[in-house]
Automatic annotation (TrEMBL):
The keyword Signal does not apply. This is Nitric-oxide reductase large subunit. Coiled coil: none annotated. It comes from Echinicola rosea. It comes from the Bacteria. The chain crosses the membrane at residues 7-27, 231-252, 284-307, 334-353, 365-387, 412-433, 445-466, 478-504, 516-539, 545-566, 586-609, 629-652, 664-686, 719-741. InterPro entries: Cyt_c_oxase-like_su1_sf, Cyt_C_Oxase_1, NorB_cytochrome_c-like. Pfam families: COX1, NorB_cytochrome_c-like. Keywords: Membrane, Transmembrane, Transmembrane helix. Residues 37-219 form the Nitric oxide reductase subunit B cytochrome c-like domain.
Amino acid sequence: MKTERKLWIAFGLVVGISFAVLGYYGYEIYQKAPPIPDQVVDEHGNLLFSGQDIKNGQNAWQTMGGQEVGSIWGHGAYLAPDWTADWLHREAMYLLDDLARQEGFASYNDADRPLQAALQAKIQQELRENTYNQESGRITISAKRYEAFTALSSYYSKLFMGSEESELEELRNYYSIPKNAIKDTQRMAEMNAFFFWASWACVTERPNSNVTYTHNWPAEELVGNKATGDLILWTGFSVIMLLMGTGILVFYHAKNKEEEVSAPQEDPLMRQRITPSMRAVEKYFWVVNLLILIQVLMGVITAHYGVEGNLLYGFPLAEILPYAASRTWHVQLAIYWIATAWLATGLYIAPSLTGKDPKFQRAGVNFLFIALLVIVLGSLAGQWMGIMQKLGYVNNFWFGHQGYEYVGLGRFWQAFLLIGLFIWLALMVRPMVPVFQKRTQEKHLLTMFLISCAAIALFFGAGLMWGRQTNLAIAEYWRWWVVHLWVEGFFEVFATVVAAFLFTRMGLLKIKSASSAVIFATVIFLAGGILGTFHHLYFTGTPKAVMALGATFSALEVVPLVLIGFEAFHNYRLSKLTVWLRDYKWPIYCLIAVAFWNFLGAGIFGFLINPPIALYYMQGLNTTPLHGHTALFGVYGMLGIGLMLFVLRSLYRDQVWNDRLIGFSFWSINIGLLLMALLSLLPVGLMQTVASVNEGMWYARSAEFLQQPLMGTFRWLRVVGDTVFALGTLGLFGFVFGLLYHRQNSKPS
């Protein structure tokens, strides 16, 4: 049996079995998600609020920015608190203070330790008991717990609706929440109901179980939320899987050495014909560079809100551009420009195979460009309108802000983008049909290329699987299909194929060995990557088995990264093979940078937070954006820039590149990103982790902890990395538009 056939069988088995398991436990999540009751009543049967109020409250939270303002169940932004951890701690302290006063003490903190332990046991018995009655659809709470709900509702209403109390003014500034973030009392009452339900799921034990719906997350000793044995057991097992997978992969790599290739005397890419549709792709890269600048600007503003509240060097910018909006745009624009760079590269490569455009190919490329512009501008405008409370619940869902990180664009824009991706897929397939008909040696590589393109179009559709008022646990399941499987999964496959394809076209890799290597790499990556999706869902109202699967397979995601040094060295060696490859120095250096960030950002910083016991204490801390920045920009961003430079090298064949400028840009971007990570995000995240272990998640995310002078110093130190990084993006912008300027001026008059 040929090697390729064996690899294709392995690919089919991995994908088929993994998605079967992913689907089965998705069904289990639907069945065992924290229930939304029909009613919440007190012990006398009086209605406090309805299930519809909880659902409307989820929409109110989403219109405010949702996961861009604090977090729920640990997922979201990091400046404001995690509202579930915050509510749970405040509710516990309210009940404990009340019981302490009954015992003659001014507050719980004034009581002696034996009494404190007894009071904790008393409220734990009440809070952890599951009083949801499936037949009646009711959750019943005590009169005292209703008092706590009323008091907390008053506190949050004042916080979000603009109370003039100095303490709340100060907190709002620390959290970068503008006055009247919620402008309607009805919306606020409903959002309080949603906060209660989300926190109820964190402390209420599942039926016939001694752990809560969120597997005892967040850590909070007052209510008995402690790390379970399962967390430690599956953490140990994940480390074993990592070591075992690493050993097998190293053995395979040693056994199958790469074939040496002699580089051609001339650049093969320079002989290919540039078709009209390939030339039309050029404007995509102009937009990519503009979006990078705007995205970095939004990042600078968002980071600065962390040190000056609602001000930007004294200017009240939050009145017109709140933190929720700047952070939304920062995250959303990153997805947009990276995806645009990759899609444009695909549009350039497909016609280059034959040197001919199918009929209307150029028109299709231009139409897709206009559609993408409309989607970007329309979705960003809609998100701002939603956050500014200018849209009702329904209109916000369709055209505004859905409240979910990375997929916050309104449903209309999601559907529009999905249609755009299928148009892109059609534009990719049409030029490749003649190549498949010839049955060339490239068929395996091109097949994987088409599979990755189809997956990019299909898996974004997972973002349409939740509705406006879908249970948060179910919405999170589908959201991570998009964020993990689409962004981290099949884009990774696409990137692997494109890089191999470019090197084969340049005569630096043999087609047969490249095809086998790509299929093998895809099998290895997806073997951990598909079921590794579950590591995002440990504490989002999912069954225990999700933790076991997530811990096991997310460890395997790290395995391919242990050989990343070989990849980096291989790419560096390729760049030195012959004189004409000097023209590709910076695109190849971008691939080397991708290897570095894959190892550090995706590998080390990713595994830092992946094991269950680590994530139990770290979820929602600055260790997450540490991984996010270094993996998203470091890996996918640098790859997007590298692919763009490959295409521009072909488009601007006769121009001498400004090596100083592009070199300055490359090193500034990478050094700036490293400084941002090491000087600010890493130390803040580690200090928060210590606080989370010792005091609880609520404290690690509190203003009391984060506003300490030392923490402020580390946040200000981020300016160093941000400045170096921003200068690098300006250099990239100048370089790309300099190519255009010089070409225009070199045209004969």
